[in-house]
UniProtKB/TrEMBL annotation:
It comes from Undibacterium terreum. Residues 1-22 form the signal peptide. InterPro entries: Adhesion/Biosynth-related, FAS1_dom_sf, FAS1_domain. This is Fasciclin. Pfam families: Fasciclin. One of its GO terms (cellular component) is extracellular space. Residues 35-180 form the FAS1 domain. The keyword Disulfide bond does not apply. Keywords: Signal.
Length: 183
């Protein structure tokens, strides 16, 4: 009986460990742990150093460490590099904090929108859906094939989600390949 009880406990521990590691997603060469918040995970991603620097410059660290839930559409360093030369350097200057904050909060949607939730909303609204951002703007979502969602901003720019469902303790990150711009 004692051996049976230990076997059950061991099996349960292995199952929990397997589930925990299955929930980990690699972004920027690092494991994104669902037990950490958005900021604590993002600072470890080599692909998001520009985003992290911008979040710090805008004073949004405490906001993105708060309870949430938030969905962050997180542009990579390569996405920021697509902007005209000098744009990022200009935006992180203290005198441009208001503009930077508006752009960054445009990438944040209150609530938790993973692939399944976004897909369900798109289907429910006949192929496209819109979500309100933390900055007060709108983002538009549509399917691009069976397993890819594109995001269109108010300025007509389009981003592809390259990594979905990076779960955080206070929400979810979906990695995008283009910086989204509000009106």
């Amino acid at each position: 009986m004692q051996k049976f009880k230990y076997a059950i406990l061991f099996s349960a521990a292995v199952a929990v460990s397997t589930l925990a590691s299955a929930a980990d997603v690699m972004v920027g060469g690092q494991s994104m742990l669902p037990s950490k918040d958005i900021v604590d995970n993002a600072v470890n991603s080599a692909d998001h150093t520009t985003l992290v620097a911008a979040v710090k410059a805008a004073g949004l660290v405490d906001t993105l460490k708060s309870k949430g839930p938030f969905t962050v559409f997180a542009p990579t360093n390569a996405a920021f590099a697509k902007l005209p030369a000098g744009t990022v350097e200009s935006l992180v200057k203290p005198e441009n904090k208001t503009t930077l904050t508006k752009i960054l909060t445009y990438h944040v949607v209150p609530g938790k929108y993973d692939f399944m939730t976004l897909t369900g909303e798109i289907k429910k609204h006949n192929g496209t859906t819109e979500l309100s951002t933390a900055s007060g703007g709108k983002l538009f979502f549509m399917m691009n094939g069976p397993h890819n969602i594109t995001v269109k901003d108010e300025s007509g720019g389009v981003a592809n989600i390259s990594t979905y469902d990076v779960y955080q303790s206070n929400g979810v990150i979906n990695v995008i390949d283009t910086v989204l711009m509000p009106k």
